[in-house]
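Hello again,

I reread your note about wanting to compare the complex against the isolated chains. To keep things tidy I'm splitting this into two emails, and this first one only covers the full assembly. Below are the input lines as submitted, including protein chains and any nucleic acid or small-molecule components. They are followed by the predicted structure of everything together. The single-chain runs will come separately.
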Amino acid sequence: MTMLETLSLFLGIWLLFLLLAIYYLSQSPDGSVGRFRESVSGHLSAESRAKALLREMLTESQYQQLIKFGYLEIPSPSIDNRVYRVPGSGGLVKVYERGCAVMELCLQPAEPLPDGDVVVMHKLMIEGNEQEYLQKANHFAPGIISLRCQHL
Amino acid sequence: MTVGMLRIMSRRGDDRITWDSQKVEANDPEAMAAIGEAERIFNEELKKGGTAFKIEPGSTVKRIDKFDRTAEQILVVPRVVGG
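Full-complex prediction:
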């Protein structure tokens, strides 16, 4: 048996043991991989619920805009020619008036929410509570900050 | 069946409580318990700083401060802060 064949054999056995260990840990509710699996499953479930809520709350054209361009544009209910551009995956909300960027806003939930829920949150607050939305958000000049806001 | 729904946004997605509005009108004990629980959770979430919106199909979103038993759907957003 050559050196290469021996090495391949050992590597194969090691991989087999590794897979067996992962399998047994994932079967145990007390195992760390079990908890990891639960956490991943919980995250996926939260994301799918958020996606379902998003589909319910947006019109077809709004949803298509979000999918195609990665943002949702929400017209201001009280200021003429103002549009809020809400990113689909976190970040600052850009505010445009007559097509020109006038400011960027940072507002986030105090507890982390799935991305889809954050979009719905912005939409509801702009459409139903715009003044408080503007009061609570931090305002930035357009283009100055492009970093994604992290959850608190 | 006319269903009312309270949805609370959280890290798990949205938690929901539903009640049968017709049974509530008829004072059905089970429906009354469900709507009572929904109202309790609603008040609790608002005390924590959440904001509630009444959502009706084909109508504009309306912010509410009091639980509306006639609402088809109420969605509560958790407390928000400037980032």
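For quick reference: The beta strands of chain B are 3-10, 13-20, 51-55, 62-64, 73-77, 80-82.

B.
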